[in-house]
Structures are given as structure tokens and as C-alpha cells.
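Supplementary Note 3. Input sequence used for the single-chain structure prediction.
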Amino acid sequence: MTIALARGVGRALPSQAQIPCDVAAIGDSAARCLVMELETWPKPGLVSHIDTGSHNDMDAGTFRHSAAAIKPYFQRLADAAAHGCGMGRLRIIGLEAEGAMLAATSGVNTHRGAIFGLGLLCAAAGARAGELVDPVLPLGDAVAQLWGASILDGPVLLRSHGSEARRRFHAGGARLEAAEGFPSIYQIGLPALRSAARVNPNDAEAARVEACFALIASVEDTNLLHRGGLEGLRFARSATRRFLDSGGVRRPCWRTRAQSIHESFVARRLSPGGSADLLAMTLFVDAHDRPNP
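The predicted structure, written as C-alpha cells, is reproduced below.
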């Protein structure tokens, strides 16, 4: 197995002894963010600890088993990147994580998108811990700097729902999002999360709901396109945008309004899975890219 120097890194690779011990916590943090995303409600059409949303093949237990199964692979991605491994090695670990996920869920795809996007952010956190990128460089920028070109040049899953939606509707999808440094996280999810948290610092779930709605209202979610086509995407964006424009979680009785939107997604069998992945990634970035005081 060939281990390549990470793109853009012009220094010798650190030895195992030189890697900071905080690399060991990256996988735990990623898995915890997946569980926090699960334990957020109401989320339009999505599985939570309360209900199964628009799904009849998975529930909260399925997601918990999946998060536990892929946690070690997030750690391996961080460790590999800390030692300067290239995209080829990261892809192998990602495929192994998918195998572990499918084994844990009896073949149900719970976290393929998160393995890709959150996995890259874990790798970027590992590269930062290994001092292979500027320590103040945001994780999204580190992903773009180290692996942006390789992400776009990599193999495509021809039979995935996301790939089918991208081809049919000419959507950008997760690959372009990652290659560009996750602009949806930094421009949409993170500002919504942190703004809502400042308004109500005692309700972390409310901030997560606000970020989730903001992402659905703005992202070209290929899961929505797969399930509902352009009409479904437009409905999802319009419903969540109305919620935000009328005050979001700052308005009294916001949970009742959010639940009603959730139920409208379920009635249409719409599930914004890409936005759910981005919410988990937003939580990870929030924990690892703290704003300057």
C-alpha cells in the first residue's frame, strides 16, 4: 500500500509519537454529532428519537447502531490524514466504513453521506492535529486545499440515489460541496446554529432545529430530488423558508409549527437526508472551528 504525501504539504510526515493525543477524540466527536443530529426534533421528514419520519425501513435504533459501527473509521480517517496519507487511502477507509454501516444496519443506508462528508472533516481535523495545515485554517478550507481536486476526479457511485438525482436534475451534490470547502456549512448551517444559540443559550435542540431548517431551505438536496423531484424540492424549500422568515425558533410555540411542517413532509414522503448529514457536519465544525473571541 502506497502512502502519498498529502496535497499541498511540503514538510516531512510526523511520526506516530508526534501526533497529538487529541486525534484520538476526533472519532468520538464525529459519532457524537451523528447522535445529536438524530436527537433533534422536529426535523422535517427525518428519522429522530421521536419517530421515523418518512421512512419505514429505519428508526432511531438503526441510526445508533450505524453511528457506533462507523466511529472507529472516523478515527482511522483522522489518523491517516495526520500522517499525510492521500485520498486513495482515505477512500479505502471510507469504503470499509460503508461496509461496517451496512453490516450493522442489515443493509440499510443510514450514513453513507455522512461517511463521505463528515469523514473528510475528520480527516481535515487529523491533518490539523498533525500540523500538516495551518492550525487556524477552517476545516472546510483544509478539505478543499488538501483534497479538492481529488474529490472531483474520484470514482462516482453510478447507482446511488444521489448520483441519479445529480444526473437527472443537474444538481451539484455532495462531491462539489466538499471540493469547495462545504460552503453550505459555513454560509448557512453554522450561522443559523450560532445565531439561534445566542438568542436562547439554554436550548441547544432549538439551535439544531434552526440550522436544520436553514439548510433545507437553501441546499439543493439530492435526497429530496430523488423522492419528490423538483416539485418536492420546491415544496421543502418553501415550507422551511416560511418557518424561518416568520421567526423560526425565536417565535413562541415554534415546536408546534415545526411539527406541522414535519408532518407535511411525511405525508409527501419527503426526506432531506443530505441536509441531515450537513447538520451533523455543522455540529462537528462548530465544535472544532471555534470563532475567535
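Residues 1-20, 165-171 have pLDDT under 50 and may be disordered. The CA atoms of residues 22 and 31 lie 15 Å apart.
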